[in-house]
From TrEMBL:
InterPro entries: FAD-bd_oxidored_4_C, FAD-bd_PCMH, FAD-bd_PCMH-like_sf, FAD-bd_PCMH_sub2, FAD-linked_Oxase-like_C, FAD-linked_OxidoTrans_Type4, Oxid_FAD_bind_N, Vanillyl_alc_oxidase_C-sub2
Domain FAD-binding PCMH-type: 30-209
Organism encoding this protein: Pedococcus ginsenosidimutans
Source organism superkingdom: Bacteria
Keywords: FAD, Flavoprotein, Oxidoreductase
Cofactor(s) the protein needs: FAD
Protein name: FAD-linked oxidase C-terminal domain-containing protein
Pfam families membership: FAD-oxidase_C (PF02913), FAD_binding_4 (PF01565)
Length: 451
């Protein structure tokens, strides 16, 4: 596939640079042998790519920062990677309306910083905040560490500008605080993983800034005691702004990277934060009491924001710790919080029976864990066992009324399980919606909807 002359000056020709656009952070992603890369400089570039792609039936993979963990932004053979990473303007920030208008390549952390400068807060907080883009966050409906109190990306997207296959530019949603005119097309695009259109502008809602959070870290002798503590904290009228769980495998992996002060002999760690304006000290003391009552063996409470950061540092290092530990599949299951203990028990049972080492950590306060299944990449049988164990946990999750993906998206890696979750009839309706927006199937084909 060759690009038309009109797109050549925006394309990447150096093979080494091009190769950096080939894969995302998902495990086992393989770079295709032929693909083109176009780095969009403005809306017109996106329109040009989608006009050309529609006319020629060329697959397009929209791409932000390639931090995705589900294989949704991996280049496709013979396709065009359309990078939105260069569109980095925050074009408006309205402190009265409490909204911002941003281009898709703005980093999550940069939007947070711009909002904070106006005394406002953009809550969605993926652990990849420093390097992932708002476009990617919208496309995956990203969650993160603050969802237990603040919700996910969808809760903060008011409106979008989207370029459809064929190059038509549409607007969805609204800028105003309220609005119920027509169907919620914004909601349809949020979480659609680049399969319906390319997001070129996002109107986000901001909220008043909370106080700097105070954090507590508790150790537990059993994972079930830790998940009981999560349930108790979820009942709180003033809910924690963060509630994260690490199991013993994760704690050891993190400690192997650097000494974050985690004891070596505990089964689980819970990290809890309070950010309610004027009440952080009162709230964190109450949470500490609940952690002790649930059976925590030790509870450390930060006195200030700096100590809080120190208590959170180990959690922030989790991804790197697990990567350093070894090759693994990373799951993203989410169950009703009251069933967290059952999920964790099932994970341990699968690990004991199959011999696959599994870590069970993540956003415990949402019932959203990222179990990791370790295997030896040089041993096909070991990889197969890990895949089978992974499939077993998915089945358990669905039997509990849970979902195959809480926040990373379906992408390529989870597509085979989507029919199990949504059912054949719903899948057909979803395919019909996709066909309405993308009749030639050029947008991220093969992702989400397994063919
Ligand atoms: C260390 C680490 C920690 C992470 N922690 C979290 C976490 O806590 N919570 C969480 O939810 N995720 C997390 N992630 C996953 C990832 O960061 C998120 O999925 C993020 O939203 C992806 O953003 P991106 O800019 O990297 O998008 P990409 O990876 O480039 O793309 C992701 C998907 O969005 C589509 N897409 C990208 N931009 C556009 C656009 N403008 N229009 C249409 N479609 C588009 C792509 O086609 C792809 O399907 C983590 C990843 C890493 C590596």
């Amino acid at each position: 596939m060759t690009l038309p002359p009109s797109l050549l000056d925006r394309s990447v020709t150096d093979p080494d640079v091009k190769a950096t656009y080939a894969v995302d952070e998902s495990v086992g992603a393989i770079a295709p042998d032929t693909f083109e890369v176009v780095r969009a400089r403005d809306l017109g570039d996106v329109v040009d790519v989608l006009t050309h792609a529609q006319a020629t039936g060329t697959p397009v993979v929209p791409q932000g920062a390639r931090s995705g963990l589900a294989g949704g932004s991996v280049a496709l053979r013979g396709g065009i990677v359309l990078s939105l990473a260069g569109l980095t303007d925050i074009t408006e920030l309205d402190p009265v309306e409490a909204t911002a208008v941003v281009q898709p390549g703005v980093l999550n952390a940069d939007l947070k910083a711009a909002a904070a400068a106006e005394g406002l807060f953009y809550p969605p907080d993926p652990a990849s905040s420093a390097f992932c883009t708002i476009g990617g966050n919208v496309a995956t409906n990203a969650g993160g560490l603050c969802c237990v109190k603040y919700g996910v990306t969808a809760d903060y997207v008011r409106g979008l500008q989207v370029v459809l296959a064929g190059g038509e530019v549409i607007r969805t949603g609204r800028r105003t605080a309220k609005g119920v005119a027509g169907l919620d097309l914004t909601g349809l695009f949020v979480g659609s993983e680049g399969t319906l259109g390319v997001v070129t502008e996002v109107v986000v809602k901001l909220v008043p800034a909370p106080d700097p959070a105070l954090t507590a870290l508790a150790t537990f002798g059993s994972l079930s005691a830790a998940s009981d503590a999560i349930v108790a904290l979820r009942r709180e009228r003033h809910r924690p702004s963060l509630l994260e769980l690490l199991d013993d495998v994760s704690i050891a992996a993190v400690q192997a990277v650097s000494d974050f002060g985690f004891p070596g002999d505990c089964a689980a760690v819970l990290i809890v934060s309070a950010d309610r304006p004027g009440h952080t000290g009162e709230d964190i003391a109450r949470y500490a009491g609940l952690l002790e009552a649930a059976g925590a063996t030790e509870v450390a409470v930060a006195d200030d924001a700096q100590e809080s950061d120190a208590l959170l540092a180990g959690r922030r290092a989790l991804h790197h710790g697990l990567v350093a530990k070894g090759t693994h599949f990373i799951e993203d299951v989410c169950v009703p919080v009251q069933r967290l203990t059952e999920l964790i028990t099932a994970g341990h049972e699968i690990a004991a029976r199959t011999g696959v080492e599994i870590s069970m950590s993540g956003h415990g306060g949402d019932g959203n864990l990222h179990p990791s299944f370790f295997y030896d990449p040089a041993d096909e049988a070991s990889r197969h066992r890990a895949e089978e164990a992974f499939g077993e946990l998915v089945a358990v999750t669905l039997s509990m009324g849970g979902t195959i993906t809480g926040e990373h998206g379906v992408g390529s890696l989870k597509a085979r399980w989507l029919p199990d979750e949504v059912g054949a009839a719903s899948l057909e309706r979803q395919r019909a919606v996709k066909a309405l927006f993308d009749p030639r199937g050029i947008l991220n084909p093969g992702r989400v909807y397994w063919s």
